[in-house]
Design brief:
Distance between the termini of chain A: 37 Å
Structural class of chain B: mainly beta
Number of strands of chain A: 11
Order of helices and strands of chain B: EEEEEEEEEEEE
Largest interface: A-B, 25 and 23 residues
Mean pLDDT of chain B: 92
Low-confidence stretches of chain A: none
Helix content of chain A: under 10%
Oligomer: heterodimer
Structural class of chain A: mainly beta
Strand content of chain A: over 45%
Radius of gyration of chain A: 13 Å
Distance between the termini of chain B: 41 Å
Low-confidence stretches of chain B: none
Strand content of chain B: over 45%
Radius of gyration of chain B: 14 Å
Chain lengths: 117, 116
Protein backbone atom coordinates (compact mmCIF):
# COMPACT_ATOMS: atom_id res chain seq x y z
CA UNK A 1 0.00 0.00 0.00
CA UNK A 2 0.84 3.72 0.08
CA UNK A 3 1.86 4.13 -3.54
CA UNK A 4 2.68 7.51 -4.99
CA UNK A 5 2.71 7.92 -8.75
CA UNK A 6 4.71 10.80 -10.22
CA UNK A 7 4.62 11.93 -13.84
CA UNK A 8 6.39 12.60 -16.05
CA UNK A 9 9.57 10.74 -15.18
CA UNK A 10 11.62 12.83 -17.56
CA UNK A 11 10.94 16.07 -19.33
CA UNK A 12 12.98 18.34 -21.53
CA UNK A 13 11.66 21.81 -22.14
CA UNK A 14 12.81 25.02 -23.71
CA UNK A 15 13.88 27.92 -21.60
CA UNK A 16 10.96 30.20 -20.82
CA UNK A 17 8.28 27.55 -20.96
CA UNK A 18 6.35 26.04 -18.05
CA UNK A 19 6.33 22.45 -16.93
CA UNK A 20 3.79 20.68 -14.74
CA UNK A 21 4.68 17.69 -12.61
CA UNK A 22 1.93 15.55 -11.11
CA UNK A 23 2.04 13.53 -7.96
CA UNK A 24 -0.84 11.16 -7.22
CA UNK A 25 -1.47 9.01 -4.20
CA UNK A 26 -2.99 5.84 -5.62
CA UNK A 27 -4.26 3.95 -2.59
CA UNK A 28 -4.43 6.50 0.19
CA UNK A 29 -5.52 10.04 0.81
CA UNK A 30 -2.58 12.36 1.12
CA UNK A 31 -3.52 15.30 3.28
CA UNK A 32 0.05 16.50 3.06
CA UNK A 33 2.52 16.31 0.22
CA UNK A 34 6.13 17.38 0.28
CA UNK A 35 8.07 18.51 -2.76
CA UNK A 36 11.82 18.09 -2.89
CA UNK A 37 14.51 19.09 -5.33
CA UNK A 38 17.78 17.29 -5.78
CA UNK A 39 20.71 18.63 -7.79
CA UNK A 40 23.27 16.14 -9.13
CA UNK A 41 25.21 14.41 -6.41
CA UNK A 42 23.52 16.45 -3.73
CA UNK A 43 20.97 15.78 -1.07
CA UNK A 44 17.23 16.28 -1.24
CA UNK A 45 16.15 19.75 -0.27
CA UNK A 46 12.58 20.42 0.74
CA UNK A 47 10.97 23.03 -1.46
CA UNK A 48 7.48 23.22 -0.06
CA UNK A 49 4.79 21.51 1.93
CA UNK A 50 1.31 21.37 0.49
CA UNK A 51 -1.86 20.60 2.38
CA UNK A 52 -5.07 19.71 0.63
CA UNK A 53 -7.28 22.71 0.12
CA UNK A 54 -4.86 25.32 1.39
CA UNK A 55 -1.88 27.29 0.19
CA UNK A 56 1.49 25.62 0.13
CA UNK A 57 4.17 26.55 2.61
CA UNK A 58 7.47 27.28 0.91
CA UNK A 59 10.90 26.88 2.39
CA UNK A 60 13.13 29.88 2.68
CA UNK A 61 14.73 30.78 -0.62
CA UNK A 62 12.16 29.01 -2.81
CA UNK A 63 10.27 31.36 -5.11
CA UNK A 64 6.57 30.69 -4.71
CA UNK A 65 5.75 32.48 -7.95
CA UNK A 66 8.14 30.32 -9.88
CA UNK A 67 7.23 27.00 -8.33
CA UNK A 68 3.46 26.86 -8.20
CA UNK A 69 2.03 24.09 -6.09
CA UNK A 70 -1.59 23.05 -6.16
CA UNK A 71 -3.08 20.43 -3.87
CA UNK A 72 -6.69 20.55 -4.92
CA UNK A 73 -7.66 17.04 -3.91
CA UNK A 74 -6.60 14.42 -1.42
CA UNK A 75 -4.99 12.36 -4.15
CA UNK A 76 -3.34 14.91 -6.40
CA UNK A 77 -0.69 17.57 -5.97
CA UNK A 78 0.99 19.38 -8.83
CA UNK A 79 4.17 21.38 -9.12
CA UNK A 80 4.43 23.81 -12.01
CA UNK A 81 7.81 25.26 -12.84
CA UNK A 82 6.99 28.53 -14.55
CA UNK A 83 9.27 30.25 -17.04
CA UNK A 84 11.84 27.53 -16.59
CA UNK A 85 15.53 28.31 -16.99
CA UNK A 86 18.54 26.02 -17.26
CA UNK A 87 19.31 26.51 -13.57
CA UNK A 88 15.95 24.88 -12.78
CA UNK A 89 17.20 21.65 -14.28
CA UNK A 90 17.07 19.18 -11.44
CA UNK A 91 15.44 16.05 -10.08
CA UNK A 92 12.09 16.79 -8.46
CA UNK A 93 10.49 14.28 -6.16
CA UNK A 94 7.30 14.30 -4.15
CA UNK A 95 6.17 12.37 -1.12
CA UNK A 96 2.72 11.82 0.27
CA UNK A 97 1.59 11.53 3.85
CA UNK A 98 -1.63 9.77 4.81
CA UNK A 99 -3.82 11.68 7.19
CA UNK A 100 -1.72 12.54 10.24
CA UNK A 101 0.48 9.50 9.72
CA UNK A 102 3.59 11.50 10.31
CA UNK A 103 6.63 9.52 11.18
CA UNK A 104 5.52 6.30 9.58
CA UNK A 105 7.80 6.48 6.58
CA UNK A 106 6.60 8.59 3.75
CA UNK A 107 6.16 7.13 0.31
CA UNK A 108 8.03 8.90 -2.43
CA UNK A 109 7.18 9.23 -6.06
CA UNK A 110 9.71 7.96 -8.58
CA UNK A 111 10.87 11.48 -9.36
CA UNK A 112 10.94 13.76 -12.39
CA UNK A 113 14.17 14.65 -14.10
CA UNK A 114 13.73 18.10 -15.59
CA UNK A 115 16.15 19.40 -18.19
CA UNK A 116 15.74 22.95 -19.42
CA UNK A 117 17.55 23.73 -22.66
CA UNK B 1 17.91 23.13 15.18
CA UNK B 2 17.46 20.00 13.16
CA UNK B 3 20.43 18.54 11.41
CA UNK B 4 21.55 15.24 9.96
CA UNK B 5 25.20 14.56 9.30
CA UNK B 6 26.53 11.80 7.12
CA UNK B 7 30.24 12.36 7.29
CA UNK B 8 31.11 9.67 4.77
CA UNK B 9 30.56 11.06 1.29
CA UNK B 10 31.69 7.97 -0.58
CA UNK B 11 32.68 4.46 0.43
CA UNK B 12 34.09 1.73 -1.79
CA UNK B 13 34.18 -1.87 -0.69
CA UNK B 14 34.81 -5.17 -2.35
CA UNK B 15 31.90 -7.54 -2.65
CA UNK B 16 31.21 -9.61 0.48
CA UNK B 17 32.78 -7.06 2.78
CA UNK B 18 30.71 -5.58 5.58
CA UNK B 19 30.17 -1.85 5.51
CA UNK B 20 28.74 0.59 8.04
CA UNK B 21 27.21 3.91 7.09
CA UNK B 22 27.23 6.54 9.79
CA UNK B 23 24.48 9.00 10.66
CA UNK B 24 24.48 11.59 13.43
CA UNK B 25 21.45 13.75 14.07
CA UNK B 26 20.50 16.82 16.06
CA UNK B 27 17.07 17.71 17.37
CA UNK B 28 15.56 19.36 20.41
CA UNK B 29 12.41 17.28 20.22
CA UNK B 30 11.92 14.32 22.47
CA UNK B 31 9.67 12.69 19.90
CA UNK B 32 11.27 12.19 16.52
CA UNK B 33 11.67 9.64 13.79
CA UNK B 34 14.73 8.45 11.94
CA UNK B 35 14.85 6.81 8.56
CA UNK B 36 17.22 5.29 6.07
CA UNK B 37 16.50 5.42 2.37
CA UNK B 38 18.37 3.94 -0.57
CA UNK B 39 18.59 5.80 -3.86
CA UNK B 40 19.81 3.63 -6.75
CA UNK B 41 20.99 5.23 -9.99
CA UNK B 42 17.43 5.28 -11.31
CA UNK B 43 16.65 7.93 -8.73
CA UNK B 44 13.70 6.60 -6.78
CA UNK B 45 13.93 6.53 -3.01
CA UNK B 46 13.55 3.13 -1.43
CA UNK B 47 12.46 3.04 2.19
CA UNK B 48 14.67 0.80 4.33
CA UNK B 49 13.83 1.41 7.96
CA UNK B 50 12.10 3.72 10.41
CA UNK B 51 12.83 4.20 14.09
CA UNK B 52 11.07 6.41 16.61
CA UNK B 53 12.87 8.08 19.46
CA UNK B 54 11.36 5.78 22.06
CA UNK B 55 12.52 2.60 20.42
CA UNK B 56 16.22 2.01 20.80
CA UNK B 57 15.98 -1.66 19.99
CA UNK B 58 18.42 -2.46 17.26
CA UNK B 59 17.18 -4.40 14.31
CA UNK B 60 18.48 -6.92 11.86
CA UNK B 61 16.73 -7.59 8.59
CA UNK B 62 18.51 -10.02 6.37
CA UNK B 63 21.87 -8.49 5.49
CA UNK B 64 20.87 -5.12 6.93
CA UNK B 65 21.19 -4.04 10.53
CA UNK B 66 20.73 -0.76 12.33
CA UNK B 67 22.26 0.59 15.52
CA UNK B 68 20.31 3.42 17.17
CA UNK B 69 22.00 5.09 20.12
CA UNK B 70 20.30 8.13 21.65
CA UNK B 71 23.26 8.76 23.93
CA UNK B 72 25.42 9.59 20.94
CA UNK B 73 22.59 10.74 18.63
CA UNK B 74 23.60 8.17 16.09
CA UNK B 75 21.64 5.87 13.81
CA UNK B 76 24.15 3.76 11.91
CA UNK B 77 23.39 1.28 9.18
CA UNK B 78 25.39 -1.86 8.41
CA UNK B 79 25.28 -4.03 5.33
CA UNK B 80 26.73 -7.48 5.87
CA UNK B 81 28.31 -9.37 2.99
CA UNK B 82 27.78 -6.50 0.57
CA UNK B 83 26.71 -7.15 -2.99
CA UNK B 84 27.12 -5.16 -6.19
CA UNK B 85 23.38 -4.45 -6.16
CA UNK B 86 23.86 -2.57 -2.91
CA UNK B 87 25.66 0.16 -4.84
CA UNK B 88 23.58 3.29 -4.37
CA UNK B 89 23.38 6.51 -2.41
CA UNK B 90 22.07 6.02 1.10
CA UNK B 91 20.29 8.82 2.91
CA UNK B 92 19.60 9.15 6.58
CA UNK B 93 16.65 11.38 7.46
CA UNK B 94 15.15 12.95 10.57
CA UNK B 95 11.55 13.92 11.09
CA UNK B 96 10.31 15.81 14.14
CA UNK B 97 7.63 18.30 15.08
CA UNK B 98 9.84 21.39 15.04
CA UNK B 99 8.21 22.72 11.91
CA UNK B 100 4.81 21.39 12.82
CA UNK B 101 4.66 19.20 9.75
CA UNK B 102 7.19 16.47 10.50
CA UNK B 103 9.00 17.21 7.28
CA UNK B 104 12.10 15.20 6.53
CA UNK B 105 15.56 16.62 6.99
CA UNK B 106 17.94 14.58 4.90
CA UNK B 107 21.63 14.06 5.39
CA UNK B 108 23.94 14.69 2.47
CA UNK B 109 24.02 11.02 1.61
CA UNK B 110 26.72 8.39 1.40
CA UNK B 111 27.55 6.96 -2.00
CA UNK B 112 28.34 3.27 -1.64
CA UNK B 113 30.22 1.49 -4.38
CA UNK B 114 30.47 -2.26 -4.11
CA UNK B 115 33.08 -3.65 -6.45
CA UNK B 116 32.90 -7.14 -7.86
Amino acid sequence: GAVVSQHPSRVICKSGTSVKIECRSLDFQATTMFWYRQFPKQSLMLMATSNEGSKATYEQGVEKDKFLINHASLTLSTLTVTSAHPEDSSFYICSGVPDRAFGYGYTFGSGTRLTVV
Amino acid sequence: AQKVTQAQTEISVVEKEDVTLDCVYETRDTTYYLFWYKQPPSGELVFLIRRNSFDEQNEISGRYSWNFQKSTSSFNFTITASQVVDSAVYFCALSDSTSGTYKYIFGTGTRLKVLA
